[in-house]
Design goal:
- It is built from 3 helices and 52 strands.
- Strand 44 and strand 45 form a beta hairpin.
- Helix 2 packs antiparallel against helix 3.
- The relative contact order is 0.04.
Length: 684
């Protein structure tokens, strides 16, 4: 991933370089001798040269002349063997890095210059001024510093000769030269300022660049709201209608010297004035605000009152509703000299007020716009917005410092109507009450409405008679009329024979109302006759299903059949490392499982050892008891033998006694091993 990214960056860098090179080619004037120690410190120099070579003696000598103008490499013949050589010339300032090309008469901006000739033959390099004074000299290289602006000449030369034989010889000479000029002064720009705020203009302007040394290569301009400079030659004009804002310039001469930035602030757009809460050229009784705006953000608002003097404000000016009645004049001008036309607004020239009626009665209040105006109600001081409730004629007089106006108004009764609705048997009335003064009157001209009956008929049924109810829709009064007798039932009989669960019977059903009743004839129910069917047979693990159906009435019910369970037999037995594994398989469904019996010998011996551990204390008592009994028996027998003087027999008995004790001890000690052997024999 990193390698891929590096490749992409390399391609992008190469593309940018190519683009810059193409731009440089487009903006550099054709034929210009351009050089700069700051950008390309080392140059291959184009120079003029002549070379001569003479071979032989007297009238038989041969010559090989060569020459060239504006070449970067010269060839010449040298030596007795007439060998061909080449020479190249390089020039650089204080640094030797970078490469470039330089033609004779071109400019360089370094005051330290080194000229170097490269050839197989030693060349003398000399640097001198136009007066011929030699400033530096050396073999194949000459360096001079502290140079002033001006023109300098460089010569490269070599000469030599020798004997070919006793009758002939050879001679050769090489001479080359070129000039260079030093220009350390940057171009000068006219028509602009070095300060960002030094020049403001609202008309067309021209900016140009001059250079007394190598000459102006080009001037660059950047327009407002743009981040890119572009070449405009040595002079450019910005006309009215162009983009407003700051224009930036710089210039570069043919020696690579670059000026600083120059600026022109251009704005030919007239500011705008807006009037809030009023309109220019009109009258108003309300406060208003005039604002001045400009794209340069440097605008001044001028205002005056009637014939007074002009005053200034930045941004805007507000005339309050309590200000003096007058004509207010305005205009705006920005720092570039762009100015609006003069406009005016008149304040408080007409008296105007209005009555505002209540939403609930006929009371009113009077209001007006200007706080400086005053009013009277029926000759007394009136406060703006105070409710006027008294019925009768009223007069409002509105006054300013110079004018007055009269507003008459009549307040009538404010009656609220209430209705007492008429009924079927009583008349109604309307009552009118004045909510302001309490006056009232009543209108009794509303007559009773009378009943309005609507009939609802209920028809006769088998058991109930019919009738009609008449109800008044207005008051709910009602009465009943038009009674009829019940219709009675109309029964039909249907015989139903006995079933599995029901007696035999005759059913009587009314054809009118569906009323019915169950008379039986004594025939007993027949009972169910079920047949059984296995729906799902049971398996070893799942229950089955048996369905029973009555052949007479079709009654159905289901019962479960219990699962059969597995029928296992031993189908395989294997023994490994003392462990027995048995396989059991069901003879019905084939299900099988394995049972590992384990190491039976180990289990038996472990159990025996467990028993011995549990009863070990008692075994030693058994050993002692057995040894004691054995000792008593043998002791009695030995005593009998000695009594009978059977010494040999007594001696054998003593030996048998010892052997018996040993056997008893061996049996007790070896018993666990004996049991293990028996267990191995049994389980093996």
């Amino acid at each position: 991933m990193k390698t891929k990214t590096n490749r992409i960056l390399t391609v992008l860098l190469f593309t940018v370089c190519i683009g810059l090179l193409a731009l440089l080619v487009l903006i550099v004037p054709k034929g210009a001798n351009m050089a700069s120690a700051a950008t390309t410190p080392k140059y291959a120099v184009a120079f003029d040269y002549s070379a001569t070579y003479t071979y032989g003696t007297g009238g038989g000598a041969s010559q090989y002349p060569r020459s060239g103008q504006g070449v970067y490499s010269a060839s010449y013949t040298w030596g007795a063997n007439r060998s061909n050589y080449t020479v190249s010339v390089f020039m650089y300032g204080s640094s030797t890095s970078g490469t470039g090309s330089f033609v004779s008469g071109g400019f360089i901006d370094s005051t330290e210059v080194t000229v170097e000739a490269t050839s197989s033959i030693s060349m003398t390099v000399e640097i001198s001024n136009l007066s011929g004074t030699r400033l530096a000299s050396g073999s194949n290289k000459a360096t001079v510093s502290g140079l002033n602006e001006g023109t300098y000449k460089v010569s490269i030369s070599a000469s030599g000769g020798g004997v070919i034989n006793s009758r002939a010889g050879w001679g050769a000479r090489f001479d080359g030269s070129f000039e260079f000029k030093i220009d350390k002064g940057a171009p000068t720009i006219n028509g602009a300022s070095t300060s960002t705020t030094g020049k403001y203009i609202n008309s067309a302007f021209t900016v140009s660049a001059t250079d007394s040394g190598s000459g102006v290569k080009t001037m660059y301009m950047k327009t407002p709201n743009n981040s890119t400079f572009y070449s405009v030659g040595t002079s450019t004009t910005v006309n009215k209608g162009s983009a407003n804002g700051r224009y930036t310039f710089y210039a570069e001469d043919n020696a690579g010297n670059q000026s600083g930035y120059y600026y022109v602030n251009f704005d030919d757009t007239v500011p705008t004035m807006t009037c809030l809460n009023a309109s220019f050229g009109s009258n108003t009784n309300k406060g208003f605000t005039v604002k001045a705006e400009d794209n340069s953000e440097s605008v001044t608002l001028y205002y005056k009152i009637d014939g007074g003097s002009w005053n200034t404000r930045r941004g805007g000016y507000t005339v309050t509703s309590s200000a003096d009645d007058a004509t207010y004049y305005f205009y705006a001008e920005d720092d570039y000299g762009n100015r609006t036309e003069e406009k005016w607004v008149k304040l408080g020239t007409e008296l105007s007020g209005e009555f505002v009626k209540s939403d609930t009665d006929n009371s009113v209040y009077f209001t007006w716009d200007r706080p400086s105006w005053t009013a009277t109600l029926d000759g007394a001081t009136y406060t703006k917005g105070t409710w006027i409730r008294a019925e009768g004629e009223h007069t409002i007089k509105l006054s300013s410092k110079t004018n007055s106006a009269v507003y008459p108004y009549i307040i009538d009764h404010c009656y609220v109507e209430s209705l007492e609705k008429p009924t079927c048997t009583h008349g109604g009335y309307l009552r009118y009450d004045c909510i302001q003064c309490g006056n009232s009157y009543t209108d009794y001209s509303i007559e009773e409405t009378g009943h309005y009956y609507v009939a609802s008929t209920s028809v006769a049924t088998c058991t109930s008679g019919g009738y009609t109810v008449y109800t008044c829709t207005r008051c709910g009064d009602s009465y009943t009329d038009n009674y009829t007798n019940p219709l009675g039932h109309n029964y039909e009989s249907t015989y139903m024979p006995a079933s599995c669960t029901e007696y035999g019977k005759t059913v009587f059903t009314c054809q009118v109302c569906d009323s019915s009743y169950f008379e039986t004839d004594g025939t007993l129910p027949t009972g169910h006759n079920y047949t059984n069917e296995v729906i799902t047979a049971p398996t070893c693990t799942a229950d089955g299903l048996r369905r029973s159906t009555c052949e007479i009435c079709g009654d159905v019910f289901d019962t479960n059949i219990t699962a059969n369970g597995h029928n296992y037999t031993i189908t395989d037995s294997a023994s490994a490392k003392g462990k027995v594994t048995r396989t059991y398989t069901c003879a019905v469904c084939g299900h099988s499982y394995k049972q590992e019996l384990g190491d039976q010998y180990e289990e038996v011996t472990n159990y025996v050892e467990y028993l011995f551990e549990q009863y070990e204390p008692y075994m030693w008592w058994v050993l002692l008891a057995s040894a004691g009994v054995w000792s008593i028996i043998i002791g009695v027998m030995i005593a009998i033998a000695q009594k009978n003087e059977e010494k040999e027999k007594a001696k054998k008995m003593l030996i048998n006694y010892v052997i018996g004790l040993v056997v008893i001890a061996v049996i007790v000690v070896a018993c666990p091993f004996l049991i293990r052997g028996i267990a191995a024999l049994v389980t093996g």
